[in-house]
Amino acid sequence: MPVDLTYDTSVTDLVDKTSAFVREHVLPVENEFHGDVTAAGGDDLRRRLNDAAREAGVFAPHAPVEFGGLGLTMSDRAPVFEAAGYSTFGPVALHIGAPDEGNVHMLAHIADDRQRTLYLEPLARGIVRSAFAMTEPSPGAGSDPDALRTQAVKVDGGWKINGDKRFITGADGAGFFIIMARTAGSPGDRGGATMFLAPADTPGITVQRHIHTTDKAMIGGHCEVSFRDVFVPDEDILGEVDEGYRYAQVRLGPARMTHVMRWMGSAVRCQDVAVEYVAQREGFGGKLADLGMIQQMIADNEIDLAAARALLIRACHELDAGRHASNETSIAKTFAAEAYLRIVDRSIQMCGGLGVSEDLPLARLQAELRPFRIYDGPSEVHRWAIARRTVGRWRKAQQAKGAGA
Amino acid sequence: MPVDLTYDTSVTDLVDKTSAFVREHVLPVENEFHGDVTAAGGDDLRRRLNDAAREAGVFAPHAPVEFGGLGLTMSDRAPVFEAAGYSTFGPVALHIGAPDEGNVHMLAHIADDRQRTLYLEPLARGIVRSAFAMTEPSPGAGSDPDALRTQAVKVDGGWKINGDKRFITGADGAGFFIIMARTAGSPGDRGGATMFLAPADTPGITVQRHIHTTDKAMIGGHCEVSFRDVFVPDEDILGEVDEGYRYAQVRLGPARMTHVMRWMGSAVRCQDVAVEYVAQREGFGGKLADLGMIQQMIADNEIDLAAARALLIRACHELDAGRHASNETSIAKTFAAEAYLRIVDRSIQMCGGLGVSEDLPLARLQAELRPFRIYDGPSEVHRWAIARRTVGRWRKAQQAKGAGA
Amino acid sequence: MPVDLTYDTSVTDLVDKTSAFVREHVLPVENEFHGDVTAAGGDDLRRRLNDAAREAGVFAPHAPVEFGGLGLTMSDRAPVFEAAGYSTFGPVALHIGAPDEGNVHMLAHIADDRQRTLYLEPLARGIVRSAFAMTEPSPGAGSDPDALRTQAVKVDGGWKINGDKRFITGADGAGFFIIMARTAGSPGDRGGATMFLAPADTPGITVQRHIHTTDKAMIGGHCEVSFRDVFVPDEDILGEVDEGYRYAQVRLGPARMTHVMRWMGSAVRCQDVAVEYVAQREGFGGKLADLGMIQQMIADNEIDLAAARALLIRACHELDAGRHASNETSIAKTFAAEAYLRIVDRSIQMCGGLGVSEDLPLARLQAELRPFRIYDGPSEVHRWAIARRTVGRWRKAQQAKGAGA
Amino acid sequence: MPVDLTYDTSVTDLVDKTSAFVREHVLPVENEFHGDVTAAGGDDLRRRLNDAAREAGVFAPHAPVEFGGLGLTMSDRAPVFEAAGYSTFGPVALHIGAPDEGNVHMLAHIADDRQRTLYLEPLARGIVRSAFAMTEPSPGAGSDPDALRTQAVKVDGGWKINGDKRFITGADGAGFFIIMARTAGSPGDRGGATMFLAPADTPGITVQRHIHTTDKAMIGGHCEVSFRDVFVPDEDILGEVDEGYRYAQVRLGPARMTHVMRWMGSAVRCQDVAVEYVAQREGFGGKLADLGMIQQMIADNEIDLAAARALLIRACHELDAGRHASNETSIAKTFAAEAYLRIVDRSIQMCGGLGVSEDLPLARLQAELRPFRIYDGPSEVHRWAIARRTVGRWRKAQQAKGAGA
């Protein structure tokens, strides 16, 4: 049987358990604090919810089994992360939020034994959090990673790192950093980057400030971090020198898809809130849900959810098959980010004045979702990459024809 | 010369003065308090800014000249209000915000001499604020005004009003209310409403709570207000008994258009912020402003601004000519509200991560603008009305043909 | 391994063979006759192309193996039909066009042995064509099938059918008709329809005229057909009396999806034509393919193709699992029809003046694709159905909660 | 009174006369020949309709009064041309189609007395047609006019022109050509173009072929024309040598706007056809016009029409005031072209299966309108220009600030 989209019952059971856990333990806290994870307790809240998740058997479904996780494939993560994402605090509770989830994924692929023990294990078990320090203030590495300016210079026994990073998610309170720094070439060059592991208390690492963005559910915020003469010993190089861009790719595709999974849950919730509202609210001689323009919004939400999910499944399949899947993840990410914003916007519109009020969670979900069209590559950068690949395929096919002639 | 879109120099001068005033006196306060007018001082701030506006000669450009205003037509208000709206605090500063501006407009048309002295003059001069109590919680009057449930019962020397109102802008701190109540018929009937004037300290009027919405620039918030056995003497009936819906129309068209004017200013500001950003920021081997996808967003913003302005001018022309212009104002409002949201969204996207941060005003302008697609009639209700009028015109034309045959 | 989207090599081989066949034998004819299948020879052309397809081993991939087909599942049909649809004449060549393909599918499910021999076999083998007579002129069954007006009255040994049908694809030249007629209830009622088989030369069946639509690739056109006292013996009832709507559902879901498959091929071709153009054409100091706005169109085409394909696969999976999948097929059909029109429109735009000319096939592909947003249920009807199901699920969940309490 | 959008009664009377004329004399012919002006008689038809238009007093409303026209301003042309455009043959009938109308406009501004007599007068009076030979096949002047490759070389007493032109509207049967050729600089340079007048029978001018596009209402088609050693005497230079680009601008803005005007009529007609259909057609328990999703389409058509008209009026006002108005005409053209396509598409959708059939004119109006998003500059080129101007304004403002500091 060639094509099969059926999940194993072990997965569907986990989805059900996750949904129940989120509704019972997570949503009430999120609603009480209007989705502001810092106001709700930050790391204290995280540890409390992590304990509850462990007890419920839903903790760290992505992490390696040897470190207490459930070792799910990307395909199987999809519905579970979606169920967790129904609350914006769900990813924190299950320890599957950015950037930790992506860092666990990457470390599991690249870290050596010593690094697994020192960095991966405490991270996977939720003992510490982590940060991934790649993006920089202008004119450094932002949408265009080749612009990387942070420098690592070889010194005796290790490297000395200098540079500034921006939008470093989870930096405030992280146990360690994965730092991307240039070890060869100049800003603008392809290649020449290396990844370094560094405990947060390494001298020279300073969290300068939080950039206050509209999303409020990521612990440790989005920070500006400076690195001044930060010494990293050779054994804390992650993988090989100058291979940082390649490793970033290992992390990037899956991390993009888990964003899609988590925020899918929020999008589903928006639709649930709106459907509940219009199914009950009277107006114009009936229920709002019976009005054509409302039905159009309900249906468009369903179509957007279905398409986002279908593209996600395709991309996960490719990743599970061991392929890079840059194109599939770009497509799924771009579509999903835009679809979610359409969904939350329609949901607000269906709920009228209450839709823009704190009486419903929709307005803050809009604020939470808006950055996703920018984070992990703005839609425009993904479209640019998708188009270049498309034209590249045509060029190759032309050359093949030419060679065959 | 039949068609002329040139403004008088008296108007363009006022626009320039208003712009200068807003940039010097208003924007700094708005930015300091991140657009939260309550945090910035509420009515204290308002009085301070009103004084500054009077001194600058830009106060109350819409109000009757006899009460210290500049008596502008709707057409001439357009560019002035736009200039004021460049800051979300601008309308408060010039005393041209909702609902006061619309209430001044309506009272100037309908109030008798006594009411002009007691209610209109202090309102026009900015001595008090006011509220317009029409919309109700479900299943009362919301998008569908015929559902009006608040009751006024005739008693000796006046009327006794009972009911609940919701989303009453500016209620908290208002000097008086204009209350829409049913004096004939049942909820669902066309007609049968009357407008009553009542000082805010009239026994039985209680501001129950603020509905916390995403917009933060209207003084006095959006409130739930209850009316319990509120006595209004006969002389405080505004206009005629049972003519409330007709008067609401007098208020509605212009009030819709001044919303369009004010928020036009915010939309222009979004574009200004984004253009300034992409014109300077480097990326992908040049300025962001030189990238095609960025240019598309810049151009689409310009097109949206131009179209919104052109529709606004058309509607103002109709209103100034003494016509109801329900269709023209519906079209202009619907288009503008949606255009502004596209504009702010594109502007955010152009600014990348900073776009969703407090470093730029865009994210909070999005929150400020989002409700406009719902306030003053959601787009769906306007579209429904526009469609019905279109089909109605066809039906009439058919009947005329039939009659002519 | 729970989720698997890999096709069997038998399928990918067939896709390759189909592509090669279409490019060699079908595209040249289509291009010569500008996509007008009647001008290209109609049934003569069909027979010629069918022979070629048999020889190439790609004929009737959907038909039962016992009748010379390849017996593919819905999932496996998807890429094969897409390859065929790369030319608008491909479906005719492979004998997988509407309505024959859907009729084969339905007859294989419902016909009794006698009917299999008399109707299904000659149809499956391409000896005759067929028509499915369901839709009617206003006020009969159109988007709303319950409005069915064609009547079948019981007479001795069979039924007598009277009524008018419209948009009956392939009627002109069909070997037999499947006629949907009301055997119980009144127009507007759910249920009460029966399916009848009738040779085209049955007295009383008349093809009145062709409705000339913008699509030109379906043999036998879209016709108005009248039925006047058409006698059908009892043994030519397809399935059970009064079960017509249920059987129509059996046909509908798969037939919708094969439309999506076939026109996917046309959409891919549009993108191919446009990419080839912009990759070569100079302008504004480089290739058009290097301009941001062009890249956006290329990328959006890729995203639309990927999403349509992903939704199609999901729906096929459901159908292959034996489920009705009304919702999945509605979603896939609605999304795909709209996506294809966006794709062809962008492709035209990328090619500038040539895009709207006969020098390229794009303009006629637009004309060919436009009806799909209407055929097989306009988008609006699907959205209405999707919305009702969504609200229905919510209502059921509410009742379940209520029952559980 | 600063802003006035009221038309003079002389204009509204002319609009009424034009509408009556079009419905009586023009629409029946258009419908009979399904909008194909060549099939309907080409220049024979044109002469016949021109005579009828003269008799009805509606001929050449734009042409100078001295040559028998009505000498309308751009603002006043707008509603008249719209009324004419209600039929796709209307512009031919009134002699206000492209390219003649734009050529009259340009010649009236630039031609010297001799040229007025020899070229302008017979053209304005409808005795001959004309063509404007600017655009070239790739890699020549298309969307990017600087790429001009056709060369004019100075010879004794005049110039010798060599080059190939493409998409030359009306070339087949034109009485004379206005030829844009390079007299200085190289392809890619700004400037260096000159305009030449040449009778169509000048040796060396050959209409090579028609490019068959989806629009069928322009007489003389869109042709490829070759110029081989075409001699033009000095006195047939239009204006000054090397000033061709500047003159093209004189022609371009107004010509763009008259396109908008004419096709506005077609868009209005689409909406009329659709409204008439849905107001009468039954379905889903009522008239289609009472369904929310249909109402949304009707309303969106109204909004698009109103916005296109409002932008047009703004641009005409600027042109009448003697300004270049490149930005205003770009905005109006871009918005209108896209709006018209949305309108015709929604109109088709409202009419279901008949919408894509020849029973209604909608499908061919879609084919007629589609090129407008490409002709006279594709939307992408206009957006690029609009964006550059926007950023340019910001840069200038910055420099002004810098200079002032």
TrEMBL record, chains A, B, C, D:
Cofactor annotation: FAD
Q: What are the recorded Gene Ontology BP terms?
A: fatty acid beta-oxidation using acyl-CoA dehydrogenase
Domain (Acyl-CoA oxidase/dehydrogenase middle) spans 131-230
Could you list this entry's UniProt keywords, alphabetically sorted: FAD, Flavoprotein, Oxidoreductase
Q: Which residue intervals define the domain Acyl-CoA dehydrogenase/oxidase N-terminal in the entry?
A: 14-126
Question: What domain of life is recorded for the organism?
Answer: Bacteria
Q: Where is the Acyl-CoA dehydrogenase/oxidase C-terminal domain?
A: 243-389
Any one GO CC term of this protein is: cytoplasm
Please name the InterPro entries in this protein's record: Acyl-CoA_dehydrogenase, Acyl-CoA_DH_CS, Acyl-CoA_Oxase/DH_mid-dom, Acyl-CoA_Oxase/DH_mid-dom_sf, AcylCo_DH-like_C, AcylCo_DH/oxidase_C, AcylCoA_DH/ox_N, AcylCoA_DH/ox_N_sf
Which GO molecular function annotations are given, in alphabetical order?
acyl-CoA dehydrogenase activity; flavin adenine dinucleotide binding
Instruction: Locate the transmembrane regions by residue number.
Output: none
Summary of subunit composition and partner proteins: Homodimer.
- PANTHER family per the UniProt record, alphabetical: ACYL-COA DEHYDROGENASE FAMILY MEMBER 11, MEDIUM-CHAIN SPECIFIC ACYL-COA DEHYDROGENASE, MITOCHONDRIAL-RELATED
Instruction: Give the protein family.
Output: Belongs to the acyl-CoA dehydrogenase family.
State the protein's name.
Answer: Putative acyl-CoA dehydrogenase
In its UniProt entry, the species of origin is given as: Gordonia amarae NBRC 15530
